[in-house]
Amino acid sequence: MCLQAAMTVIIGFEGSANKIGIGIIRDGEVLSNPRRTYITPPGQGFMPSDTARHHRAVILTVLKEALEEAGLKPADIDGVAYTKGPGMGAPLVTVALVARTVAQLWGKPLLGVNHCVGHIEMGRLITKANNPTVLYVSGGNTQVIAYSERRYRIFGETIDIAVGNCLDRFARVIKVKSKISNDPSPGYNIEQMAKKGTQYVELPYTVKGMDVSFSGILSYIEEAAHKMLSSDQCTAEDLCFSLQETVFSMLVEITERAMAHCGSQEVLIVGGVGCNLRLQEMMGVMCKERGAKLFATDERFCIDNGAMIAQAGWEMFRSGQVTKLEDSWITQRYRTDEVEVTWRD
């Protein structure tokens, strides 16, 4: 009788922003992936201290859910992965503290994961993309990435704010009948409004080589919005549509340029903004024109979640890369290209 090789089970803790998620991965299979979101009132962002308080209140409940949903006990876990950074300081510390405690209580090795690498590895797992050019777009990050010589190299990025931050901040200032809700996210609600937009309002288009800038567009549209809406030159839906079309065009442009440079025939979109169907549609058109393939995931895996940290942790664990307790700190600044990708050729 052939004995099956022992399977590796990793639990992952994610809490770098307003999502707290704990996921369990067993050799590429997602066993559980519960998540909670800290949602603030319309017109408000989320403060680090308040977000950390939210995470502290629910993290043990989410941990219990993850284990029960997977049908596992602590003894079945091989390693404990957590988000080392980048992200907001207070929420990162909260989650790292619980992960460290759990690892010591259960006698398991720790795996400090780069949040951005977590998104990439989850995207690769779910979509089966081979060696894609990656567009990583979220509330805190905007990067075009490609793998080369044991690093995820950054070919282009935002030089100021992230694209998700641009969309979220616009959602907070634009007044329709009432302010745009943060539930489930301001970016999602802008996407729904944009579908009803019919008039394109010209906005600044800022691509600088391989990099993009969103702060000027945001300042321009924030100032123009009140004048244009009060004088009935356009609707709020038109502005949402115009903002999306402009910023997504910029992202498609730099992604295509990175593909040409790398000779790539695959694009993988990851990060919270990657759920946006209009962005996927625009990227799909570009890929079709180049004879390339587009890969994307839905909100289960695009949006911050524990399973993506578990998957990156699984790759680290299998390649012998673990984090010593004394090295299990967090950092708000942790670039994608700082990580040695020991699990890829």
Automatic annotation (TrEMBL):
A divalent metal cation binds at residues 115, 119, 136, 304. Binds 1 divalent metal cation per subunit. One of its GO terms (cellular component) is nucleus. Keywords: Acyltransferase, Cytoplasm, Metal-binding, Nucleus, Transferase, tRNA processing. InterPro entries: ATPase_NBD, Gcp-like_dom, KAE1/TsaD, Kae1_archaea_euk, Peptidase_M22_CS. It catalyses: L-threonylcarbamoyladenylate + adenosine(37) in tRNA = N(6)-L-threonylcarbamoyladenosine(37) in tRNA + AMP + H(+). PROSITE patterns: GLYCOPROTEASE. It is found in: Cytoplasm; Nucleus. GO terms for biological process: tRNA threonylcarbamoyladenosine modification. It comes from the Eukaryota. Substrate binds at residues 136-140, 168, 187, 191, 276. Its cofactor is a divalent metal cation. Pfam families: TsaD. It is an enzyme of class 2 (transferase). One of its GO terms (molecular function) is tRNA N(6)-L-threonylcarbamoyladenine synthase activity. NCBIfam families: arch_KAE1, gcp_kae1. Belongs to the KAE1 / TsaD family. HAMAP family: Kae1. This is N(6)-L-threonylcarbamoyladenine synthase. It comes from Betta splendens. The gene is osgep.
